[in-house]
Design brief:
This protein is an all-alpha fold. The protein has a domain at about 30-65 and about 80-120. The chain is about 55% helix and about 0% strand. Helix 2 packs antiparallel against helix 3 (about 85-110). The relative contact order is 0.16.
């Protein structure tokens, strides 16, 4: 009985293994390098998505007859003979693909233990 009074907490196992075995359902904290890598990839994809959104808006404005800020002949740009509606459809498909890649990236980050708030700037 004297032994129990001196140390009220019972210890079982080695002191080296305090962390215990990894449990498959619990995500371990992610390293700062992994968070930075995911954040960089996410920023690039979001920039591409914003560019596609701008192109779609410009094409829709052009189709409505609204003059944009870049009217006239521009020698450094290529011109497309495809209809505006077809171009918009292609861009919307590209936007859907980018959204799917972003979702997959966010899922991969979540599986690595990265919280969504860690990916925001």
């Amino acid at each position: 009985m004297e032994d129990l009074r001196g140390n009220p907490i019972s210890q079982v196992g080695d002191a080296k293994n305090d962390a215990g075995p990894r449990k498959p359902g619990i995500a371990q904290p992610a390293s700062a390098q992994a968070v930075a890598s995911f954040r960089k990839q996410l920023a690039a994809l979001q920039a591409q998505q914003a560019n596609v959104d701008k192109q779609i808006a410009d094409l829709k404005n052009f189709n409505r007859g609204e003059a944009g800020h870049d009217t006239g002949l521009q020698l450094h740009k290529s011109y497309n003979t495809e209809s505006v509606e077809a171009q918009v459809r292609k861009l919307e498909e590209k936007r859907k693909q980018l959204a799917a890649v972003i979702d997959a990236l966010l899922d991969a980050a979540r599986k690595r233990g990265i919280e969504p708030g860690q990916l925001r700037y």
